[in-house]
What we know:
mainly alpha
Amino acid sequence: MPFEEIELHSYRESDTTVFLNSHVAALTAWVAEGLWTMTGLLDKEDGPLGWTSRPAAFAVCMRILLSARAIIQRNKRVLTSGV
Length: 83
C-alpha cells in the first residue's frame, strides 16, 4: 500500500492531532499483539535453527521491540509535559 501524500497546511491542528492519535493507537495495538505472540513463543524451545534464526522473524521482532520502546518514551513525554 503506497503512502498517501497529504498537504499539511490544509489541516487544522486538531485534525492532525486526531490523525496522529489514531495512528499511534493502531501502532500500539499492533505492538501489543506482537508482544503477546512473542511472549507465547518464549515458552517453546527453539534451537539454533529455529524461527528466531530467520532474518525475517528477527526483523519483525526488532520492529515490535523498537516500536514498543518508542511508544513508552512517547507516553512518558506526554505524561510529564502534556504534549
